[in-house]
Amino acid sequence: MEKIPEFKSVKEERRFWDETDVAELMDELEEVEVEYRPPKKRVLSVRIDSGVYDRVRRLAREKGISVTAFVQLAIAKALEEGITLEGKK
User: Fold this and answer.
1) Rounded to whole angstroms, how far apart are CA atoms 70 and 76?
2) DSSP percent split of the chain into helix, strand, coil, nearest 5
3) Which pLDDT score, from 0 to 100, does residue 11 have?
4) Do 88 and 81 meet the contact criterion of CB atoms below 8 Å apart?
5) Alpha helices in the chain (DSSP H)
6) In terms of C-beta density within 10 A (0-12 exposed, 13-18 middle, 19 or more buried), how is residue 72 classed?
């Protein structure tokens, strides 16, 4: 039976777990408790022109996601890319 090795890098560990059947290592694994705390979210209510909403709704539908999810992704992407009201930083 294969043992879980010490890894020299995240890449090496990722490769190991991608290529290893975890069922073969069950006796080496130990149970741990993990507490999951979803990130805190706040509500933002925004009034937009109906034409803008229709465009957003169409784009969201094309991606197969809700309007809310689309707007969240669009805002996050704009912030990540440094887009401001004046344009890019």
Assistant:
1) 10
2) 50, 5, 45
3) 93
4) yes
5) 10-19, 50-63, 67-80
6) middle
Residue with the two structure tokens 């912030």: 79
CB 25, CB 2: distance < 8 Å? yes
The predicted model scores a pTM of: 0.53
Q: Which positions of the chain have pLDDT values less than 50?
A: none
∠ at Cα 45 (41, 49), nearest 5°? Answer: 140
pLDDT of res. 89: 58
Please give the pLDDT value at position 71: 96
Residues 6+ apart with CB under 8 A from 59: 70
Interatomic CA distance for residues 31 and 26, integer angstroms = 10
